[in-house]
Write a structure and sequence with these properties.
alpha/beta; 9-stranded mixed beta sheet; 6-stranded mixed beta sheet; globular; hydrolase; C-N_Hydrolase; Carbon-nitrogen hydrolase family protein
Length: 239
Amino acid sequence: MKIAVYQMADSGDPVQNIARAYQAIVNTDADFFALPEFFTIPGGDFRRPYTLQTCLEETALPALEMFRQASRQFRGYIIGGSIVEREADCYYNTCYVFKEGEEITRYRKINITHEEVELNICRGTRPVTFETEFGKVGLMICADCISWDVVEATCAGAKLVFLPVSLTDPNHPPFTGHPVSDIIARKYGSTVIKITRVGTFGGKTLSSRSAITTPEGTYWEAPDAREHFEVIEVSETAT
């Protein structure tokens, strides 16, 4: 099984962010291709005063069309990080999964952050897993991994768990390794694929490292906290 992880740097331009993701997807041979949380939206030093509606129109809808097009050329599952989704009067932080031009499923982030609450993003209500030829796959987004209700509902019985995360907060306490992924992988016997985003804050590049964690520990880790793309061969015994 091949998993493509794109630890993507924010270019400051949603058109470029989407185009770079598209080129990476269609030129990759893998069973899964995973992107970070809010990979389309300029953040950090590039942050813009979007309304949720303009963010939807300028960053999310073009990304959704890109997923459809790219998935017609990419043979595997596209795990679309996350983008803004609107239903009625609610906006959600949503991870879409595409394959062969079709939407397989979508997941709305449940454990939203204080910043997302202030932006009036709505909280999802339904954990999501889906079946593949490689076994059951679970979806979480960033802070979901510290809500044990969400973790239990998503990870129990899941062979793979995808965890897209976004720009590192410069005020976040420093840490080493992947302690939450380690706990989840050991407790549920799952392989956790964390995909991080790279941002610039005060001119300084910041990111945590993307990683694939199995019940035995870290199987693969990005070499540094800068932009990095890699296709990782994960054996059946590792998962």
